[in-house]
Amino acid sequence: MPRSLPNIVVTGTPGVGKTSHCEEIARATGLEHVAINRIVREHECHEGWDDEMQSWIVDEDKLLDALEPLADRGGILLDWHACDLFPKRWVDLVVVLRCDSSVLYDRMAARGYAEAKLQENLDAEIMEVLLEEAREAYDEEIVVELRSDKVDDLDENVERVVAWTEAWKKDQARRANDEGLESEESEDSNAMEDHGVNGTADTNG
Ligand SMILES: Nc1ncnc2c1ncn2[C@@H]1O[C@H](COP(=O)(O)OP(=O)(O)OP(=O)(O)O)[C@@H](O)[C@H]1O
Ligand SMILES: [Mg+2]
Asked: How many domains, in total, are found in the chain?
């Protein structure tokens, strides 16, 4: 059963603005914001808490099981600082948010991040770790890199994703319609065969 709503991954280094973007996109499109952190906690898809990295040690199999019904239904915004765990067939668009390192440093410092985590995250942003991960895991044409340094960037990015979502929905509706017509046509030709219309030449010959 094809989905009538797209699934979008919003990813990037911690602090780039994934949650801020997802909240705005959800408001504007009606897509459901799925914060993976919350799912991991609520469904206990983890093997404990990593104190140094200040994050859950995620049990990916359990997480994917918890997400599958939502992904199959469609219309979700997956908000997580990793992306290659999500199966390709789930994903219609991957937004990789990028942030200037000094801006990101300030954001993380404001959140009181431990030095170890702050440094590791900054290195990951500078090394484009998430962008590489996305490009390796998904088709090039569905991966977009967007800046998230300032509020204007956020507004612009949200507008772009809203426009993309509308276009995707129209496209999908057209595809579903075309497929419907095709299957109607083949039903018609079956019906004609059933009624012997196509078989006249054979029976006469
Ligand atoms: N484009 C932006 N312009 C200005 N401030 C931003 C922008 N994006 C995010 N912020 C601010 O940066 C902080 C971190 O944003 P947010 O929580 O959305 O990041 P995140 O990627 O979800 O982080 P995490 O990976 O830790 O969940 C917030 O205070 C948010 O208001
Ligand atoms: Mg977040």
From this structure: 1
